[in-house]
Amino acid sequence: MLSSLLVANRGEIARRIIRTARHLQIRTIAVYSEADATLPFVSEADEAVLIGPANPAQSYRNTEAILAAAKSTGAEAIHPGYGFLSENAAFAATIQEHGLIWVGPGADAIDAMGDKINARNLMAAAGVPVAPGTTDPATTVEAAIEAAAAIGFPVMVKAAAGGGGMGMSVANDEAGLRTEFDKVRGFAERMFGDGSVLIERYFPRVRHIEVQILGLADGRVIALGERECSVQRRNQKLVEETPSPALTPQQRADLLAAAVRAGEAVGYRNAGTVECLFDPTSGQFFFLEMNTRLQVEHPVTEAVFGVDLVEEQLRIASGLAPTFDPDTLTVTGHAIEVRVNAEDPKRFMPGPGAITTWVEPTGEGVRVDSGYAAGTTVTPSYDSLMAKLIVHGADRADALAKLRTAVAGFEVVGPKVNLPFFTELLDNAEFISGDYDTAIVGRMR
Asked: Which SUPFAM superfamilies does this entry report, sorted A to Z (predicted)?
């Protein structure tokens, strides 16, 4: 096992990684921006290094500052968490070129899966189902219209280099496509420095289901179940649960097998997620993208399998076998996670501010991964995620009951908070039934 770890991230995920590393007696180093100086992850690490101002480009995305912090503290490895530089192939390669251990997949795998069109083509070649779409970037609106005519409207217009639900729009006809193509291309150029656009069939009623994979140190790729992620706003997740209430045993087996093939196709190592769209009408699933990192929603998988995915990441990076036998690992119960964000519960617009009260719920099967506490401030410089509330029950009904109690017991005063939305969702008949899709939030508004 490695001996020291620099966490190149902030907030709840930095705190989460530090917790496991300290349990394993690994010396931890936090890096932080001026805006985050008082957050819990900074004081909980063994060492902490200020790397720049609030602007992520000058701090959490500043490769030189992070490398300098690693060198000055004698860090042996770097864990990128999620977001920021976690899926930056050049950063991963640079870390390794400097003789440090990268806690994640190789730069080649990150690069291969970072472009949605390239990833689609790789997956199709590996026998993983993909939705009808373009195999090359649509470089002009005329090319996009021609592709859409072959695919059939409505279509999804996507930034090929995008991720996390960003750079996506729906076009219902040619006039809409002309408008959305220019919007998505412009957004992609500004945000990702790459204006390549993918045209793909849009499914009006679809579920978003993903598979947790681990590429082990011995070369095997295994799947640790699926996660249902269909409760979304602006194509970004709010609630995740496992197992998915949508799948039959055969559909689940087919989905997990396809995810393993996806990982094997790129020689995947460490933790990753294969995201898919599931059409409940036909029972078909289609590859969406691969996230070459640890996911925000990883705790629900940990809950039902009884594993620590961060520990497994560190073991893989150290060349060690997993703590469990992949051939006997089984699911126990049902887990649900909600993302507690500093945003209003109606329009989901960010509402940062100083936290005057922070009371986390407790109880059997209740877990809170938080990045903040009373006396700290949610700034507008970063994502609005403050904490993740996770519950684990004997079955879905038990998990829902625990979640209702936990949401009611979570008190945050100061910034805006979306907890009232979850109270509403947990009384929604569609969600309670388990027969919901990615449009559920829109139907509630």
From this structure: Glutathione synthetase ATP-binding domain-like, PreATP-grasp domain, Rudiment single hybrid motif
The angle at the Cα of 340, spanning 296 to 379, to the nearest 5 degrees, equals 95
Q: How confident is the model at residue 413 (pLDDT cuts 50, 70, 90)?
A: very high
Q: Please, are residues 301 and 225 in contact by the beta-carbon 8 Å criterion?
A: yes
Decide if pLDDT at 333 tops 80: yes
Structural contact between residues 271 and 308, judged by C-beta atoms closer than 8 angstroms: no
As a whole number of angstroms, the distance between CA 371 and CA 16 comes to 9
Question: φ and ψ at 70, to 5 degrees?
Answer: -65, -40
The answer to whether the CB of 368 falls within 8 A of the CB of 390 is: yes
**What is the amino acid identity at position 58?**
Q
pLDDT at residue 406 greater than cutoff 80: yes
Residues 6+ apart with CB under 8 A from 347: none
Tokens 């087996």 label which residue? 253
The angle subtended at Cα 258 by Cα 256 and Cα 263, nearest 5°, is: 95
Gyration radius of the chain over CA positions: 21
The separation between CA 232 and the C-alpha centre of its own chain, rounded to angstroms, equals 13
Please count the other Cβ atoms lying within 10 Å of the Cβ belonging to residue 58. 14
Beta-carbon-side half-sphere exposure of residue 199 (alpha carbons within 13 Å): 30
3-state class (DSSP) for residue 377: strand
CA distance 389 to 366: 7
Distance CA 157, CA 182 (A): 10
Kindly report the average pLDDT of the chain as a whole number: 96
The per-residue pLDDT for range 418-436, each reduced to its tens digit, is 999 999 999 999 999 999 9
Which residues are known catalytic residues? 293
pLDDT digits (tens, 9 = 90+) for 201-211: 998 899 999 99
At 355, list the tokens: 């936290």
Supply the pLDDT for residue 190: 87
Structure tokens at 201: 């069939």
In degrees rounded to 5, what are phi and psi of residue 178?
A: -60, -40
Report how far residue 57's alpha carbon sits from residue 239's, in angstroms, rounded to the nearest whole number.
Answer: 29
Q: How far apart are CA 140 and CA 143, in angstroms?
A: 5
**In degrees, to the nearest 5, what angle opens at C-alpha 262 toward C-alphas 2 and 294?**
40
Amino acid 348: pLDDT: 96
Residue 76 pLDDT > 90: yes
Bridge partner residues of 222 (DSSP): 214
pLDDT tier at 165, thresholds 50, 70, 90: confident
Going by pLDDT thresholds of 50, 70 and 90, the confidence category of residue 164 is low
Tell me what percent of the residues of the chain surpass a pLDDT of 90. Answer: 91
Cis peptide bond N-terminal to 154, omega within 30: yes
Our CA angle for 58, 60, 61, nearest 5°, is 70
